[in-house]
Amino acid sequence: MEPTCRTADAHPPPPPRRRTRRRLWRWLVAFLLLSALGLAGTGLAVIRSRMPEPERTEAFVRHASLVAQKRISELKPWDATLVFPLPVRKEDVAAEFIDLLKFDEDRRFEAHYGVDPRGMLRGFLGWLGWGQAGGGSTLTQQLVKNVYLHPARTLSRKLQELPLALYLDGRLGKDQLLELYLTRAYFGHDLYGVEAAARGYFGLRAKCLSGLQSALLVRTLKAPARRNPRTRRRELAREAWALLLRRHGARKAARVASRSARRGAGCRPRFRAWPPPRRFYARDAALAEIRERYRTVVGDRPFVAYLTIDPKLQLYAELAVERALQSRERYGFDQIALIAMTPDGAVRALVGGVDYARSSWNRAYRALRQPGSAFKPVVYLAALEAGAKLDALIADAPFEAGGYRPRNIDRRYLGLISLREALVRSRNVATVRLAERIGRWRIRELAQRLGYEGGLPDDPTLALGSGATTLRDLVELFATLANGGRPVRAHLVAAIRDRQGGFFAIEPPRPGPPVVARRPLCQLLRVLEEVVRRGTGRRAAFAGGHPTAGKTGTSQNYRDAWFVGFTAHYVTGVWVGRDDDRPMNGLTGGDLPARIFAGFMVDAHRGLPPRPLAGCRR
Question: CA 564 to CA 571: how far, in whole Å?
């Protein structure tokens, strides 16, 4: 039998079902690949759209420093209390700190280009549990996170972090990156930068840190809020000693720990301890003032701003607030704000809340609340301008104005009383009746003339302070009265200088010309003195013989309690209330706020001679 030749027809084609299955798999694989590429492209586009554009180098290195002076006439940085980090240069930091920082955080800092693949692999394996746990971020990546991005551990942030780190490493030198990191790093207790941390925790300059102090600060970077030299010092000290042992070995570690980086006069502590957290309300307000008023002066240059805050008065204000917190449960409040300024508007003390760490919201500058009876002096000043006499009688009896029926806080009526007694006793019904008699337009026009920026509703409740305002606006209003009727604007910045030594003196807002005649103003001030001496504000009186004028204020349902008063030296306002605007337990402005005022003013006036109010002699 002859062999047959094998042809192409010897292998029959696969069944139709098998060919269809292959085509489906091919289409499925192609679809999955295209989908993956599409998703990857979309993800990169989204990440790129959310990635911030790197700023110019000059803007990137911009930093601010604020110092509060004892005496504004002597602008000496070493005689000040630091409240914001100073820019840091490499040569101004202890060499031991920089060495330990690189050893513990980024050993290949000089070798990589912003991103270290070895460190990322080591961190990923530690996250999987296949090695020692530890972060894989370089110092450059940490700097990018602190400046551009957010601290949340997300894949999106990590993908944004990598290109920015590569960009900065290529744009800036290693020394400049290190200096930026040393300035921006967070060390807990609102301390940013190694210079601020060294002064805040140890009272030393950064170049004077010893080896052990350097190790303590380096280990603080791992968890600055929970572990720092103030909170868990013993646990942190063990970790710092372990770091020194790993870096230097047992023989050299003890010698390095005890030796200062530099010795001599430069290492003697010159700076006071870090200020209490409430002082940061003044820092934030000063930065906002600089951004609003002096942006063209400072530009993009590093600068130091000298504040009008008096550290001694600031301490007195914080102590007065601290004492008042003992009555928190009794009265049911949760916040206190205080401003003290000179009659020309220089703020000497500022407390924006009871706990800056829990809430940085500045209630003295930003919280809008109803001033209540604290607005009544404007009503009576308008009446005096219109020709009313303080001895004129007015009815303290029920009446209705535009559908509104005012009531006194004690629900009683005194009948016919003089205008003087109506203000001294803070009678609501008599005040509304007076406002309707002289015309609300007079009150609104006078308030605007005095520079008052609070709300001025055009209804009968205007006389009782129903328009929302801030404590700063109210204190500025009383400062205008204390300054002889010249409108006043609060200011915190006294002077600014740049890092190169250039000095920019700031011209503070000067009070304008008087907008009120002297006679009615002095009449009003004498009545406000009686408010403190025998009226609703008698708890605000303090020893020392200083003529004191002021007014209490209580908003509807005891939601806000105020006292604003002044002497010839200082104008001080106090607000007590709740952030959620709920009523308090019957707290009025003549009670706790008046006592806070008196406690602060008696300390603030030690050694000051008594003077008449606004030059109004009897």
Answer: 8
CATH 1.10.3810.10 fits 85-274, yes or no: yes
Residue spans per domain, the chain: 60-83+276-368+470-511+536-618, 85-274, 370-465
Q: DSSP of 472-519, one letter per residue?
A: HHHHHHHHHHHTTS-----B-EEEEEETTS-EEE--PPPP-S--S-HH
Distance CA 391, CA 182 (A): 68
Domains 60-83+276-368+470-511+536-618 and 370-465 belong to one CATH topology: yes
Q: Which residues of 262-299 are buried (b: 16+ CB within 10 A; e: fewer)?
A: eeeeebeeebeebbebbbbbbbbbbbebbeeebeeebe
H helices of 185-232, in order, are: 194-202, 211-220
Residue-level pLDDT at 249: 77
Outline where 325-414 has alpha helix (H).
328-331, 376-385
- 149 pLDDT band, cuts 50/70/90, is low
Which sign, positive or negative, has the C-alpha torsion 609, 613, 615, 617? negative
> Could you report the per-residue pLDDT of 374-421, keeping only the tens digit for each?
999 999 999 999 999 999 999 999 999 888 999 999 889 999 999 999
Task: Quote the pLDDT of residue 64.
Answer: 52
Q: Which residue has the tokens 């509807």?
A: 556
Neighbours of 197 (CB within 10 A): 30
- Residue 570 in contact with residue 347, Cβ under 8 Å? no
Token pair, residue 371, equals 């001033």
Tell me the average pLDDT across 85-113.
80
Give the mean pLDDT of the chain.
80
Q: Report the DSSP beta bridge partners of residue 347.
A: 341
pTM: 0.68
Give the type of residue at 263.
Answer: R
475: which 2 tokens? 């204190």
Q: In which region does residue 250 sit, left (phi positive, over 0), alpha (psi from -120 to 50) or beta (all else)?
A: alpha
> What's the CA dihedral at 596, 597, 599, 605 to 10 degrees?
160
Domain 60-83+276-368+470-511+536-618 in CATH: superfamily?
A: DD-peptidase/beta-lactamase superfamily (3.40.710.10)
pLDDT higher than threshold 90 for residue 470: yes
Q: Closest Cα partner for 197 from 64, 85, 277?
A: 85
The mean pLDDT of 345-365, rounded to a whole number, is 89
Domain 370-465 has CATH 3.40.710.10: yes
For 499-555, what is each residue's pLDDT tens digit? 555 656 666 777 878 999 999 999 999 999 999 999 999 999 998 889 999 999 999
H-helix or E-strand containing 444?
helix 440-449
Q: What Rg do the C-alpha atoms of the chain give, in angstroms?
A: 34
